[in-house]
Amino acid sequence: MDWIHTLFTDSSSIAHIVLLYSFVIAVGVLLGKIKFFGISLGVTFVLFTGIVCGHFGFTGDASILNFLQDFGLILFVYCIGLQVGPGFFSSFKEGGIAMNIVAGGIVLLNIIIVLLLYYALQGKIDIPMMVGVLCGAVTNTPGLGAANEALQQLNYDGPQIAMGYACAYPLGVLGIIGSIILVKYFCRVNLKKESDELEKQEAANPHLTPIKMYIEVRNEALEGKSIFQISQFIGRDFVISRILQDGHVSIPNRNTIFHIGDRLFIVCAQEDAEAIGAFIGPQVQLDWEKQDTPMVSRRILVTKSSMNGRTLGQFHFSSMYGVNVTRINRSGMDIFASRNLTIQVGDRVMVVGPQDAVERVANMMGNSLKRLDTPNIVTIFVGIFVGIIFGSLPFTFPGIPTPVKLGLAGGPLIVAILIGRFGYKVKLVTYTTTSANLMLREIGIALFLASVGIKAGANFVSTVVEGDGLLYVLCGFFITVIPLLIMGVFARMHYKMNYYTLMGLMSGSYTDPPALAYSNQIANNNAPAVGYSTVYPLTMFLRIVTAQILILFLT
Q1: Which of 215, 221, 254, 407 has the fewest CB atoms within 10 Å, i.e. the most exposed one?
Q2: How distant, in Å, are the alpha carbons of 29, 390, 410, 416, 442 from that of 75?
Q3: What is the b/e burial string over 150-185, where b = at least 16 CB atoms within 10 angstroms of the residue's CB?
Q4: Is the dihedral of CA 542, 548, 549, 555 positive or negative?
């Protein structure tokens, strides 16, 4: 029976380490699904399971633990970057600016309170541990990873900062939800009034989704003019998917000539519909079944990498294929198909034309769901390769004795954001299914948390229970609650922000899914999700970068 003893106790054995990680992750994930007062800690429970195992002496070779910790962190932050990349820059447009200002203010206040507590306690908690408490208080695990990686650059040999994270995290989750509730009472929010205001805003600002119109040409100035000329006159983007002339229905192209009495099937952005109708003619009722050649409309899935990054205008669909593209569905949202719109793998393109022509376009675009199910691992590892090189570049700043590096967390994160947003311009296919991205992220964060927990477990009880554990909890509570209350009230009073949107913003500023789930349950609308997704990209970036800055500049 020596083999059983060796399997469970030999820390240098690969079989023992794999067994240990499997147990820690499996048990941690299962326990993380248990809800306490309606709130679950999710994958974070892997950290606590690892601490328990480490406390009872179950560990592994230090070099292997470090490798799995760093590799898991890289996988996690890179997939986060790919996810937030497409929306990172667009989140700064118009209404998103105010929300990101509030979120940035919350991050700044978190840091200010950390520094105030550090100096108030006269250094009783050192900066690295205070950063660990900060990451737990704002429930941001990638920040913990970035801080750990920065400490490795400085050859830090103090206590594991994961202990501060573990102490502050549970109350951090409750503190976020509690702050959301307190803002409601401080600002005397009437939930029904907030719902009514949202409905009024949606009615006053219709979504810029494509709409369809049947229009008859009545403007005599358009007689004998081509579609291209008319589009130049109007100065608005639109697509004429079908035209009825002399009793015959056909697919027009840019050279098709207009005549008085022609009837058109037009697709355009909702904001342009009134101007186009006023210029061309009134809307009419029309039966498109009376046509020479049967026309079909079909959504085609873009799966060929050769399509990635090219604009619709480059394909000359109407002149070369005899079809028209009217709109594109991307990530569940319909987008008007203007000539300058860039096609990306994963788009669903609405094509109108004769059956055989539509089939040719489908073959050209790929239209293979199976192909999309295969992850593009080349892009993933090319991005990680470039990200590690970028993260290893030293940057020197006056007054700092050692060069600053973005490290294994910051480098891949920034490169992933850039690839997620601009990858198509260098022909990189960045599309991955949501399930594939989530799987890689969960594996990465589970490996990271298990490694941190196992390494911290040996000294956890002596450091936290017999040491400053309660102080970590108290500091974490202040770091969690005070910034949310200050900026939450500020957003309501200064920006007159809708409370439901503010709930999502407050949850997103701490990248906290349990708080978002609570907000969605209260709201029964998508306003919290909008607020969360608007500030999430910038907040995630700031949390990772600021954790490293605090370590590198103040340690």
Answers
A1: 221
A2: 18, 16, 12, 11, 9
A3: bbebeebeebbbbbbbbbbbbbbbbbbbbbbeebbe
A4: positive
Structure tokens at 85: 């990349």
* Beta strands at 248-250 and 348-354: parallel, antiparallel or unpaired: unpaired
Interstrand relation of 238-245 and 248-250 (parallel, antiparallel or unpaired)? antiparallel
What is the C-alpha to C-alpha distance for residues 351 and 297, in angstroms, rounded to an integer? Answer: 6
Distance (Å, whole) CA 348 – CA 329 = 5
pLDDT above 60 (res 197) = yes
The residues near 440 (Cβ < 8 Å, ≥ 6 apart) are: 75, 76, 79, 380
* Pick from 292, 369, 358, 294: nearest CA to 325: 358
Burial of 148 (0-12, 13-18, 19+ CB in 10 A): buried
Residue 19: phi and psi, rounded to 5, are: -60, -45
- pTM, two decimals, is 0.66
CB 138 within 8 A of CB 110: yes
How far is it, in rounded angstroms, from Cα 319 to Cα 321?
A: 6
Edge-to-edge order in the sheet of strand 333-336:
295-301, 348-354, 324-330, 333-336
The Cα–Cα gap between 503 and 517 comes to 10
The label of the residue with tokens 């794999």 reads 18
Task: Give the H/E segment covering residue 440.
Answer: helix 434-457
Distance CA 225, CA 34 (A): 68
Question: CA-CA distance, 484 to 538, in Å (whole number)?
Answer: 17
Other beta carbons less than 10 A from residue 110's beta carbon = 23
What count of residues does the chain have? Answer: 555
Give the residue, 338 or 256, on which the prediction is more confident. Answer: 256
302 and 349 in contact (C-beta within 8 Å)?
yes
Alpha helices for 299-406 (secondary structure H): 355-365, 369-373, 377-392
From the number of C-beta atoms within 10 Å of its C-beta (0-12, 13-18, 19+), residue 389 rates as exposed
- pLDDT tens-place string over residues 32-45: 888 776 666 677 78
For residues 282 and 492, what is the distance between their CA atoms, to the nearest angstrom? 44
Where are the strands (E) in 411-476, listed by range? none
Contacts for 26 with CB less than 8 Å, ≥ 6 apart: none
The rounded distance, in Å, linking the Cα atoms of 429 and 345 is 7
End-to-end Cα distance, the chain: 49
Give the span between the Cα atoms of 443 and 131, in whole angstroms: 24
Cα 149–153–159 angle (5° rounding)?
65
Instruction: Output the six-digit token pair for 108.
Output: 């700044």
At 502 the pLDDT is: 92
Distance from C-alpha of 166 to C-alpha of 155, rounded to nearest angstrom: 22
- Looking only at the bridges linking them, the beta strands covering 295-301 and 263-269 are unpaired
State pLDDT tens for residues 473-487.
899 999 999 999 999
**Spatial separation of the C-alpha atoms in residues 319 and 269, rounded to whole Å:** 23
Answer positive or negative: Cα dihedral of 297, 298, 302, 303: negative
